[in-house]
Amino acid sequence: MSSCFCDKAIERTADDVATNAQDKLVQSSDPKHPANLICTLCKLFYYNNWVTGTGGGISIKDSKSKYIYIAPSGVQKEQLQPEDMFVMDPETDAYVRTPQKYKPSACTPLFMACYKRRAAGAVIHTHSQHAVMCSLIFGNEFKIANIEQIKAIPSGEKDPVTGKDINLSFFDTLAIPIIDNTAHEEDLVGGLQMALHQYPAATAVIVRRHGIYVWGPSVEKAKVFNEAIDYLMELAVKMYQLGIPPDCGIGDEKKHLTL
Ligand SMILES: CSC[C@@H](O)[C@@H](O)C(=O)COP(=O)(O)O
Ligand SMILES: [Zn+2]
Asked: What is its cofactor (predicted)?
């Protein structure tokens, strides 16, 4: 009898130790810790209409532990708390932290494809209406040229001396693949992987009638790319409404303007 009680106590202690270790992964006073930053960015994105009605989300790879932080599924993203986060070890694809009351985000396989195939440091998924509008207007590719804001987006080239990413120039064209939506988020993986293969320089993929996935080597860069691309998609829709193709040459806009 007493040994049974002891066994249970030992089991409980082991469980408590494991739970405490898991909880430590999401407890930090550092606002830049992935568990805190996901909450902060989701709030910010909510007020941009990018992650409303539980849609969209963010995942961040911790630069020290290399663990991947992912928000749970079907929750109001602007109300997330650090303790709501799933944590995955990308070496084993196993969760090292699983909050009891939630399921992992349906976007997880897409986030993982970006981490594995693009060495991403963070992946942002939004249900931006500008992305949806571009996917309705354009075919399998969104292109925009000669707009100052494209200079925030990497060209895919690296500086041979510093090894740093070279961004697009004002005179370049930004091209982002558009893939078709599927009934279930996880079924998007095939289309996403195809687009990653066909567009080695791309830092985003638009999903028709759904939204956009944007990634970068760090969360700071992914945030900048997402903001710049969203600005460009919004502008492209306005240009299109005026009859101006977003990828038209400098000076050619007057030929197209329908005002
Ligand atoms: C409004 S439901 C949207 C989901 O199906 C999906 O597209 C999405 O972006 C979020 O999935 P989630 O599993 O809540 O992280
Ligand atoms: Zn979505």
From this structure: Zn(2+)
Specify the 3-state DSSP secondary structure of 87. strand
- What are the angstrom distances between the C-alpha of 127 and each of 48, 49, 142? 10, 8, 16
Mean pLDDT value of segment 134-148: 98
Q: What is the pTM of this model?
A: 0.94
pLDDT at 11: 65
Same domain, 101 and 114: no
Same domain? For 50 and 18 the reply is: yes
Mean pLDDT of 168-182: 98
pLDDT tens digit sequence for 121-134: 999 999 999 999 99
Question: In this structure, which ligand is nearest to the CA of 59?
Answer: 1
Which tokens sit at 114?
Answer: 């970006």
Instruction: Give me the chain's average pLDDT, please.
Output: 95
Query: Confidence class of residue 1 from pLDDT cuts 50, 70 and 90?
Result: very low
Q: How many residues does the chain have?
A: 259
Nearest-angstrom CA–CA distance, 216 and 233: 18
Which amino acid belongs to residue 9?
A
pLDDT at residue 64, as a whole number: 95
For residue 208, report the distance from its CA to the centre of ligand 1, in Å: 15
φ, ψ at 178 (rounded to 5°): -120, 125
Ligand 1, atom 1: nearest CA belongs to which residue?
55
Last residue of a domain, one of 105, 127, 146: 105
Q: Which ligand places an atom closest to the C-alpha of 207?
A: 2
What is the mean pLDDT of the segment spanning 80-85? 98
Residue 74 is part of which domain span?
1-105
75, 105, 135 - which closes a domain: 105
**Nearest residue (CA) to ligand 1, atom 12:** 73
**CATH number for the domain including 155?**
3.40.225.10
